[in-house]
Amino acid sequence: MRLGKKPVGLTQKTGKRVGYHHRDLRNALQEAALELIAARHSPDFSLRELAAALGVSHPAVYRHFADKAALLEALAERGFDRLRRYQEVELARAGADALERLYALDDAYIRFAEENPGAFWLMFGNRGDEVSRAKSRERINADALKSLTDAIERCQDEGLVIPGDPYRIASYLVMAPHGYACYSNQDRAMIGAAGGMLDHRALAEISLIPLLTNPPSPQEIAGRYFAAEPADANG
Which CATH superfamily, name and number, covers 76-213? Predict the structure, then answer.
């Protein structure tokens, strides 16, 4: 779905409205709203505008959502559920390795942000009441925190990560992926991008170094993450 050209829901040749099944229209409204949020970095749209983009009547929107706040609340709840599924997929890929499970949670967060920019902005960039009212937010936040603290505690049990309060360690570890995701989500020019910026896996590894019981040496860190790109021999 792409907004801004022919309204979604209209045929390209005739401009006549294409009918939606009841459930299809609800899904279409949510997808169109997420595209608008991603494009504007804001839920700054009206339900009338949303209806026009889909080629349906304004009253049709109210058969699915009582008002705009109800739509945004539904989007936030769906977003938190989707983030949980990303975490489950990445943890399954990581297998039993303790450090890989930590990195997997980082990967899940960033993949979610990159592939769901509208939902990410609404969930973590917006401070509207509709997000705090989302029924799944508290539960999924608690589940996500438990997944992270469980991974930290396992690394501690295996002697890979220093002792300490896993909740305080978790609050530190979430900063790197969130910062990376925010930059990526907002299409900002990354610092150092011209010379080959760090990818999010490298950033996750670097953020964990102060917590490792056997960290790499400064020379190893410099060579592994910050060495200059080799000059182009033909340049």
Answer: Tetracycline Repressor, domain 2 (1.10.357.10)
